[in-house]
């Protein structure tokens, strides 16, 4: 059974950092790409970052480039999103997603990230 178990959300002040994780269950990150997207109230869903399965090529949206870093641990079959220099505009529910053929095939339950003073 496929599961994506997310953790590591929370509330921080502007400029702070968080490092959410996403443990993949039932499939291998060596076979499927994994990534994160986010959705804030009243806004459309937007892709944040993803990392490919075999060669580890990464993608970042312009809004997070230079501040966020995606990585994965092959032995733990877990992906991480290091989020630095957080801004209030980063406030959203963040979802971990399993990709197949560049499309979201499955997503996690979501974690809340709140950035405010």
pLDDT < 50 stretches = none
Molecular shape = globular
Give me the secondary-structure category: mainly beta
Radius of gyration, rounded? 13 Å
Portion in strands: over 45%
For the biggest sheet, the summary is:
7 strands, mixed
What's the β-strand tally?
Answer: 11
What oligomeric state best describes the polypeptide chains here? single chain
**String of helices and strands:** EEEEEEEEEEE
Distance between the termini: 40 Å
Helix content: under 10%
Mean pLDDT: 96
Number of continuous helical runs:
0
Structure description:
Helix content is 0%, strand content 51%. With 117 residues, it is an all-beta fold. The strands form two sheets. Strands 2, 4, 5, 6, 9, 10 and 11 form a seven-stranded mixed beta sheet that branches. β7 and β8 form a beta hairpin.
Write the layout of secondary structure elements.
Layout: E1 3-7, E2 10-12, E3 21-25, E4 33-39, E5 46-51, E6 58-60, E7 68-73, E8 78-83, E9 92-100, E10 103-107, E11 111-115
Parallel strand pairs: 2-11
Antiparallel strand pairs: 1-3, 3-8, 4-5, 4-9, 5-6, 7-8, 9-10, 9-11
Quickly describe the structure.
With 117 residues, the chain is mainly β. The protein contains no helices and eleven strands.
Distinctive features:
seven-stranded mixed β-sheet; four-stranded antiparallel β-sheet; mainly beta; 117 residues; 0% helix
């Amino acid at each position: 059974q496929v599961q994506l178990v997310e953790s590591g959300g929370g509330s921080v002040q502007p400029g702070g950092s968080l490092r959410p994780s996403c443990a993949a269950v039932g499939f291998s990150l060596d076979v499927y790409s994994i990534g994160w997207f986010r959705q804030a109230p009243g806004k459309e869903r937007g892709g944040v970052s993803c990392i490919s399965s075999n060669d580890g090529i990464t993608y970042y949206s312009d809004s997070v480039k230079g501040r966020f870093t995606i990585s994965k641990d092959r032995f733990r079959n877990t992906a991480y999103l290091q989020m630095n220099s957080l801004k209030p505009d980063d406030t959203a529910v963040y979802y971990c997603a399993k990709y197949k053929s560049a499309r979201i095939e499955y997503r996690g339950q979501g974690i809340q990230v709140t950035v405010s003073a």
